[in-house]
Amino acid sequence: MKDYSKVIRTQSERTQYREHSTPLYLSSSFIFNSAEQSRAVFAGEEDAMVYSRYDNPNTTELIDKVCTMEQAEAGLTFASGMSAIFTTLASLCKSGDHIVASRAVFGSTHQILTQLLEKWKISHTYVELTDNSQWENAIQPNTRLLFLESPSNPGLEVADLSFLGRLKEKHPKLILIIDNCFATPYLQKPLTYGFDISIHSATKYMDGQGRVLGGIAVGQTEFIDELQFLLRHTGPALSPFNAWIISKSLETLHVRMDRHSSNALELAKSLEKHPKIKKTIYPFLPSHPQYNLAKKQMKSGGGIVTFEIEGGAEKATQFINRLNMIRITSNLGDTRTIVTHPASTTHSKLSKEERAAVSIFDGTIRISVGLEDIEDIKKDILQALEK
Ligand SMILES: Cc1ncc(COP(=O)(O)O)c(C=O)c1O
Questions:
Q1: How far is ligand 1, taken at its centre, from the CA of residue 209, in Å?
Q2: C-alpha R_g of the chain
Q3: Helices 221-234/81-92 angle, 10° precision
Q4: Do domains 3-250 and 253-386 have the same CATH topology?
Q5: What is the pLDDT of residues 111-163, one digit of tens each?
Q6: CA-closest residue to ligand 1 atom 10
Q7: Which residues contact 130 (CB under 8 A, 6 or more apart)?
Q8: C-alpha torsion 114→117→120→125, nearest 10
Q9: Digit-coded pLDDT (tens) for 182-212
Q10: CA torsion 227→229→235→236, rounded to 10°?
Q11: Of 6, 101, 268, 270, which one is least surrounded by beta carbons within 10 A?
Q12: CATH class for the region spanning 3-250
């Protein structure tokens, strides 16, 4: 069975009502049949649900589905993508440890590395995502983990996952972690390259309809178990309602990602030729510097197209304001096409130099290509460029 067929058929155990679709388990806690059972569960002698900060049938179903797609042993859900990233890094590192991370990480991940972890004496070295020798050379005796996004947000750079998997074989104590949010587990399966943990902002393509926040980390049981302590005792748990929404949405992930990708490729091809656009970036455009790698690692190019408009911030602002159908909002991975100006929003906390180092310029525009008809998407973008 294809993994997306398995995801459609995965369901928490049916209740006595024989429902076809999974019910929403809005319950903070779960009852025990006796004082003896409650003691045995707390003592770890018996496995049963206790409290929704720990787990819940809706979060468990969601984890099962993502583990199936990612070929992972275990997983945990979180209130948001950022709480998944923070809990992972904070759980696995202690004071004195060192992290090697790609410079091209999401703005809040950059804040965690530079502000929070530095404060706790966990240092980091930034490397160019696509420069294999920089990854290798940055490893120190106290390096605990390697962290990256691929494709990156919003520059859409693509890391060499096989190289990083081999690097881990040379340094078996290193933990290899990817934020797989842009690719989704349908388009890219990093654990099959030797990665230990794959993290997602489920807020994006997993929900896919711009409704709820969520995060998930999946990987080898030994590492996921290490994250559990911080999750249970500090409480960034995913609400059962959000888990129920995201779990149901995963049943259509493959269909949505196929269409996001075909719409995005067609848009990228038409923007590449446009005289008012300096540069168009999309992993499945032959002009992309890591085109061959993207083709090898990803089933299709995903739903994000990034381009740089001639004329910098002024023209970028005019372009965004002239869009009719496409809305300005700081989300991505929705059925509705979205425009974002990274320099003044998601990456505004970075200095101009830090932004330039990850290819974010004043004229950079990120389009999260939705599921509307591609002609409607192109029409809106082209009319805003023409004006
Ligand atoms: C690549 C990436 N990782 C993590 C996040 C954070 O996810 P959340 O907003 O669910 O906390 C985002 C949000 O845009 C993202 O794009």
A1: 15
A2: 21
A3: 110
A4: no
A5: 999 999 999 999 999 999 999 999 999 999 999 999 999 999 999 999 999 99
A6: 81
A7: 157, 158, 159, 160, 289, 290
A8: -70
A9: 999 999 999 999 999 999 999 999 999 999 9
A10: 0
A11: 6
A12: alpha beta
Residue pLDDT, tens place only, 330-352: 899 999 999 999 999 988 888 89
**Ligand 1 near 239 CB (within 6 A):** no
Exposed e or buried b per residue across 93-117, where buried means at least 16 C-beta atoms within 10 angstroms of its C-beta: beeebbbbbbbbbbbbbbbbbeeeb
Question: What is the pairing mode between strands 338-340 and 364-368?
Answer: antiparallel
* Residue among 141, 143, 72, 70 nearest 101 (CA): 143
Q: Which residue in this structure is represented by tokens 């990456």?
A: 347
**Nearest residue to 230 via CA among 96, 78, 387, 334:** 78
Q: Please, what sign has the CA dihedral across residues 205, 206, 209, 213?
A: negative
The verdict on the CB of residue 80 being under 6 Å from ligand 1 is: yes
Q: Which atom of ligand 1 is nearest to the CA of 153?
A: 1
- Spell out the SS3 assignment of 31-81: CCCCHHHHHHHHCCCCCCCCECCCCCHHHHHHHHHHHHHHCCCEEEEECCH
Tokens of 118: 């530095």
Beta strands in 276-341 (DSSP E): 277-281, 304-309, 327-328, 338-340
Amino acid type, 166: R
* CA atoms within 13 Å, Cβ hemisphere of 188: 32
CA gap 54, 227 in Å, rounded? 12
Per-domain boundaries in the chain: 3-250, 253-386
Is residue 149 lining ligand 1, measured as CB closer than 6 Å? yes
